[in-house]
């Protein structure tokens, strides 16, 4: 395929990620993608009809599938500039029985890009590959309904330090193919940057992963204050950081990140949920209800002696759900008045709300 867009050409050559079509996800592990749970978390009400639509901006080969697992009854638009990636994503959804996704080839802010407004937009690992990331973020913000939620992942300057050093060196040396890159990596001296990358990187195991990590034609990395400035210019604000070890309070997490960056450290790439400034809804009074995140209903409802470990998705680690905790959470399969939950149970509700296993709304 001939294209003037180097990023589009890159993903036509190396569709990413390279998961087998048989790869599946448990619905409980998609809990941080469920529209109703996220809307209730940040708006304190259930989403209105006009918010029940999801956009994946830069979907790659895989993201539409877990999003459809998390939201089986919500219309999803999967947007990507690579036809080859979209074909792979479409096959993955079809093979796993997911029919609520519409696939569209286009970019974030071009004439063939986004149409309509959405309650949830997912843009994971995309903005840092745009020529103008701020323009892309502004475009996404313009397609949120009032109270809408945008999840992004962007590269941290210090989390990507080694990969960026190697990527720049490869470009200077004229290394453009994964095969040539792998040859150099295999010959790397012990203790070198190349050898250290091979030892710790999962991306080096596949052609597309290696190409995405070390051969990408366009990459921007951010310090936290650079990221916050871009978010502000787009008219957005952080609602929740979701990278590893993130604190629940965004203000406290920003303070922690700044302290880490003074020592040129990072907890990993930035993952966070954003909302438009001044559009989040406040509770209107009255008694609220507490209910189980829809994605977690099945493992909690199942009567069994086994434990369930749900993969962490919003920064904090998840406890193993044993018989006792499953029995407790089972009480919230249908909504429960918050005022009826007292004592130790009320304390547990707060714990599971922080984990997004439970949600509360008016």
What does this structure look like?
36% of the residues lie in helices and 15% in strands. It is an alpha/beta fold and 362 residues long. It has three domains: 6-157 and 219-276, Vaccinia Virus protein VP39 (Rossmann fold, 3-Layer(aba) Sandwich), CATH 3.40.50; 161-214, no CATH class; 289-361. The strands form two sheets. The chain has a seven-stranded mixed beta sheet, with helices on both faces. Helix 7 (178-186) crosses helix 9 (207-214).
Structure keywords:
362 residues, alpha/beta, Rossmann fold, 3-stranded antiparallel beta sheet, 14 helices, 10 strands, 15% strand
Layout of secondary structure:
Blueprint: H1 6-13, H2 35-43, E1 54-57, H3 64-70, E2 76-80, H4 83-95, E3 101-105, E4 118-124, H5 133-141, E5 144-154, H6 161-173, H7 178-186, H8 193-200, H9 207-214, H10 224-233, E6 236-241, H11 250-262, E7 270-276, E8 289-292, H12 297-301, H13 323-330, E9 336-337, H14 343-354, E10 358-361
Parallel strand pairs: 1-2, 1-4, 2-3, 4-5
Antiparallel strand pairs: 5-7, 6-7, 8-9, 8-10
């Amino acid at each position: 395929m001939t294209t003037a867009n180097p990023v589009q050409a890159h993903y036509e050559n190396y569709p990413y990620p390279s998961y087998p079509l048989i790869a599946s996800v448990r619905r409980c592990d998609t809990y941080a993608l469920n529209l109703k749970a996220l809307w209730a978390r940040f708006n304190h009400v259930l989403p209105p009809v006009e918010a029940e639509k999801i956009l994946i901006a830069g979907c790659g080969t895989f993201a539409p599938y877990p999003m459809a697992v998390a939201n089986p009854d919500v219309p999803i638009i999967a947007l990507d500039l690579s036809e080859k990636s979209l074909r792979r994503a479409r096959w993955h959804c079809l093979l796993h029985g997911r029919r609520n996704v519409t696939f569209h080839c286009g970019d974030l802010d071009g004439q063939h890009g986004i149409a309509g407004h959405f309650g949830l937009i997912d843009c994971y690992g995309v903005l840092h590959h745009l020529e103008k990331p701020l323009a892309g973020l502004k475009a996404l913000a313009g397609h949120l309904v009032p109270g809408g939620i945008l999840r992004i992942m962007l590269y941290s300057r210090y989390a990507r330090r080694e990969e960026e050093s190697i990527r720049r060196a490869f470009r200077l040396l004229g290394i453009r193919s994964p095969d040539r890159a792998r040859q150099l990596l295999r010959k790397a001296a012990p203790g070198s940057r190349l050898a250290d990358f091979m030892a710790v990187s999962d991306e080096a195991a596949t052609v597309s992963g290696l190409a995405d990590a070390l051969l990408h034609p366009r990459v921007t990395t951010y310090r936290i204050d650079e990221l916050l400035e871009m978010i502000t210019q787009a008219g957005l604000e952080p609602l929740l950081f979701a990278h590893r070890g993130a604190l629940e309070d965004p203000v406290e997490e920003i303070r922690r990140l700044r302290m880490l960056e003074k020592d040129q450290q990072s907890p990993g790439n930035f993952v966070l949920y954003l909302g438009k400034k001044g559009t989040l809804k406040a509770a209107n009074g009255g008694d609220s209800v507490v209910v189980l995140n829809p994605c977690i209903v099945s493992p909690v409802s199942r009567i069994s002696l086994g434990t369930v470990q749900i993969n962490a998705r919003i920064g904090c680690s998840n406890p193993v759900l044993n018989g006792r905790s499953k029995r407790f959470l089972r009480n919230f399969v249908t909504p429960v008045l918050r005022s009826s939950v007292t004592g130790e149970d009320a304390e547990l509700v707060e714990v599971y709300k922080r984990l997004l296993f439970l949600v509360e709304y008016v």
